[in-house]
Fold these 4 entries.
Entry 1:
Amino acid sequence: MRVTFRQYSGQADYALVDRFLIEQYQPNNADGNWLEPAWEYMHGHPYLDKTALGKIGIWEEAGQVVAVAHYESRLGEAFFQFRQGYQHLRETLLDYAETHLYGVSEKDGRHFLQAYVNDNDPPFQALVQARGYVKDPDGARPLAQMIIPQSFPAIQLPEGYRLKSMADDFSWDKIHRVLWRGFDHPGEPPESELEERKTMQNTPNFQHHLKIMVEAPNGDYAAFCGMWYQPQKGFAYVEPVATDPHYRRMGLGRAAVLEGIRRCAELGAKTAYVGSDQAFYLSFGFKVLFTSDGWFKTLEGWR
C-alpha cells in the first residue's frame, strides 16, 4: 500500500484525527503526539482561526491516518503527529507546512513558520536545523505529568471561598472575566468576545462537572480550571487554568486544579498531564516529560 494525502474536511475528519490520537497514545505520552483532549480544546478555543482548518494535512495508508500536520490557533505555527513507524514522513510534513501552514508577517509581508519539534526527537531537530530554522527561546512548550496518588491530598480553601463547577449554577460573564484577567489582559473583558468564549463548551467530550471554579465570598470567580478526562486511556488533562490577579497567592488555583484531578481520578484517571513546567505545577507533583520546542524560520523563498 502507498501513503496518500488529502486536506482536512470538516467534522468527519475532526473525529478521525481524534481517534488516531487516542489509538497512538502510549503511557507517559511516549508516542510524542498531542494528547487527544488538546485536539478537542483547540477546536473549542475562541481564538481558533476556523477559516484555515481546510489547510490541515492528513496522510493515510490502507484507510488509516498515519500522520497529520496542523496549526493550533493561527497559521504560522505547525505541529506534527505520527503513527508509530511513519516518522520517516517528517520531511514530507515539514515541506507541506512550509507551503500551506505559513503565516504572513504584518511588518514586511514575508512568510514565516514556527515548527514545533519535540526535544526527544533528534532526527526531526536535525532536519529543522538543516533547513535553517532557529530555536525560539520563548517558544518552548513543556509537557508535565502527575501520577495521581491513591490517597488524594486534602483540598483547602480560605474561609468563605468554595469550589463549584459548571454543572452547578454558573455565570458565563464571570467565567469570561476570570479567564480574561487570569491571563493578564488589561481592564475588563470585552463583551463582544463573550459569545466566542461560550464556544469552549461546544466540543464532543466537554464535561461541565470537570470545569472547576473557586467562588469568592463576594460571588466573583477567583480561579478557574478546565479539566478533561480521556476514558479510553485513563488520564486527565489540565487546560486552561487562570487566577484573577486580585486573588493570587491564596492557593485558589491549586485548589481548582486538584479538585479537577480528584474528580477525574474518581472516573478512573491514573495520571494527569499539563502543558507547563511552572513551579506552581511542579510543587504538587507534576514532572516534565519532554518539551516541544518552537523552531522559527522566515521563508524568504515563498514571499
Entry 2:
Amino acid sequence: MTNSFIIHPIPPVYDSSSRILILGSFPSVKSREVMFFYGHPQNRFWRVAADVFEEPVPMTVPDRKAFLLRNHIAVWDVIASCRIEGSSDASIKDVTVNDLRPILETAMIGQIYVNGKTAEKMYCKYTQPLTGRPCICLPSTSPANAAWSLERLVEAWSRIRQGA
C-alpha cells in the first residue's frame, strides 16, 4: 500500500451550544467512505459515548450528528491533511492541522479531549502552540486498542460528561 496524500473530507460537527471538543487524529478509510467520524463498525466511539450519556447507540449519520449536538459535543480531527497508508496512524507524515478557531470562536468549549495517543501527540506538537489550550488524552476507541475493554473505555470516557 502506498502512502497517499489525503485532505480531510469531513466537516467538523459543532454549534454554539457545544461545550466539549473531541479530536481524533485523522479519519480512517471507512470514516472517509461514510463521510462521518468513527465510521468503522469496530470503532467503539459511538458505543462508549452512548453509554456515557445513557442513550441508545446512534446508528445513522443524522442520528450521530444529532446525538453530538444534543450532548453539547463538538467533534473534529487534529489533522487537516497528511500522507497516510490506509488507516494507519503510525504511517502519518507531512501533517497540516485543522484550524480550530471557528469552533473555539463559536462555541464555549470548556475542555478539549483527544481520542488516543496519536491525536494527543499531534495536538501537543502542532495545535496547542496555536490555541494555548491543553488537551486531556482519553484512551483510543479504535479497534487497534484491544487492551482496553468496552467497560474500561466507558469508565475513562465518563469524565467528558462533566463538561457537556
Entry 3:
Amino acid sequence: METKIIRSYRRRRTISARFIDGIMHIYAPAAISDEKLTKVINNFKRRFEKQKLKKELKTKENLNEVAQKLNGKYFGGKIKIGSIEYATNQDRIFGSCSCRKGNIRISYRLASMPQWVRDYVIVHEMAHLIRPDHSESFWELVSGYKLAERARGYLMAKGLEPNEEEDIEI
C-alpha cells in the first residue's frame, strides 16, 4: 500500500489518514517520532485493509439472501432480521446477535470456510433471536440444521469452537 506522509507544524497531537487516488495520505505533526508514526501507519493500514475486505465480502455474497433462505427453511420465515453483515473485528467469535434489534454479525473468517459452516453459524445466531441463551430448546432449534453437528465438529477440529457464553449480545 503506497503511503504519503504530510507533516505539519500546525498539527500538534492528532494523526489522520485518507485514501486519495489509491494512495494513503497520512497527516501528522512535524514533531512526532518516526517510530511512533510507523506504529500509527501500521494501524491505519490494518484498518483500511479490513474495510476493503468487508466491502469485498459484501459485494461477493448477499448475506441477507442467505439468511432469508435459511429462515424459510429452518424457521418457517418467522424470524425478523434487522440486518446481517460480515464483521472484520470478530477474531475470537464467529457470530453475534443483538436480540433486541435483530442484528446479526458474522465473522469475516467464515468467508474462507465451507459454505455449510457459515450457514450453521447463521442458523445458530438466528436461533438466538428466538432463544437468547444456550438452553436445551435453543439447541433443538439449531439441530434442525442438517449439518449442525458436522459444522460444530469442523470448528472444533480446527480448534476454533468459541466459548458458547460469549457469542450472545443482548
Entry 4:
Amino acid sequence: MSESPAAVDVLGCRLDCVDIEEATARILSYARGTHPAQVVTLGTEMVVAAQRDARFRATLAASALNVCDTVGVLAAARRRGARIAARVTGVELLERLCAAAAREGLPIYLLGGAPGVAIEAARVLAERYPGLRVAGADDGYFPPERANAVAEAIARSGARLLFVGLGSPRQEFWLAEHLAQSGAGAGIGVGGAFDALIGRVPRAPESWRRLNLEWLYRLLREPHRWRRQLALPHFVALMLFDELRTSLGGRQHR
C-alpha cells in the first residue's frame, strides 16, 4: 500500500495531510520557535473563494500549515490519495492547543468575534484548562487603521499562540500582514470557534459530527445560512470539472 502524501492539491490550494495530533504538535513547535508561522483551517468556502482571488490564493500558499476543516475538503483530499482520518476543525484545534498550552505555560491571545465574545471565550478556556495563561483577548470590531495598534498590543502581551476569529478571508489576510508584528510564534485562523466555545452558536451533537453532518445541523438550526452552503455544490462541481480535465489531458498525452 502506498504511503499517504505529505500534502495534496485541492483546486490549487495546498492541504497538509495531518490529523489533529500532528497538527497540534506542529503548532506547539511553531509557538516555541522564533519564526512566526501562520496556520489555516481550510474549508470549502475558502477553496472556492481562492479560485477568483489571487491574493487569497497566495496567502494560502504561503502559510506554514493548512489543515482540513470541512467535509468537502476531506472528501477531496481522500480522492487525491490522502489518508486523513477526520477533520481538524478550528474549535477542536483551539481546545487541544489550550490544553497543551496550560501544561507548557505558553501564553495565548484571542482576537475576534463580537464585543465581549473573546473575553468570555478566554474565561471559559481558563476555567476548563487550569493553569492556562491568557495574555489577552479583544473583539474583531476594529477598523483597518487600528490593525497595527492591535498587533502591537498583542506583542506587548507576550502571547505565543494567537487565535484569530475574524472570519475568512479577513483573518487570513490579517495574520499574513501582522503575525510577525504581533510577536506570536503561531497564528491560527479559527473562524467562529469563539462563538461555538461559549455556546453562542450551538455545536452539532457528537453523533452528527461523527457522520460529518455538522454543516447540515447548522443549516437546519440557522436556515438563513443557505447562501453560504451553496459553496459546497459549487466546490463539488469544480472538483468534478478538474478531474474530468485531468482525465482528458492524460488521455491526450498517451
